[in-house]
């Protein structure tokens, strides 16, 4: 399960942070991620294993959606979740950039929180159903 989601500007500044579980993820993970991303250059990797977390990233219009977890989970679930969040926010705001997010911060945060709880719940339930279906037919 994802523990935290960050929205980063194109300079690596944390614009939004949402902790999803009781275990707080320190913002220093964003600094580690940004240093790692810069050192990799053009080699984009959507899933990265840091010394302490698994990181999932999606970049849209210069905004990096970064999710963290300390437990293994299906990589496509994390990436799909971030893609959906990025799509909804982009459609809702008419595009994504640092100024739009800062000018509409309260709206972005409320939409972000709603999306996080609804979408993650749907994805988690779909996986649970798929797993129970597989178990029943083994």
TrEMBL record:
Entry-linked SUPFAM superfamilies: SNARE-like
Protein name, entry field: AP-3 complex subunit mu isoform X2
Signal sequence region: none
Lineage, highest ranks first: Eukaryota, Viridiplantae, Streptophyta, Embryophyta, Tracheophyta
């Amino acid at each position: 399960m994802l523990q935290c989601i960050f929205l980063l500007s194109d300079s690596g500044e944390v614009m939004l942070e949402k902790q999803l579980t009781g275990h707080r993820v320190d913002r220093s993970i964003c600094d580690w991620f940004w240093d790692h991303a810069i050192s990799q250059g053009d080699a984009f990797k959507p899933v990265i294993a840091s010394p302490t977390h698994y990181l999932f990233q999606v970049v849209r219009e210069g905004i990096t959606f970064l999710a963290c977890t300390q437990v293994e989970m299906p990589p496509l679930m994390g990436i799909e979740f971030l893609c959906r969040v990025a799509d909804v926010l982009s459609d809702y705001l008419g595009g994504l950039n640092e100024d739009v997010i800062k000018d509409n911060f309260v709206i972005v945060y409320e939409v972000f929180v709603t999306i996080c709880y609804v979408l993650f719940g749907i994805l988690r339930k779909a996986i649970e159903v798929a797993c129970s279906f597989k178990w029943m037919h083994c």
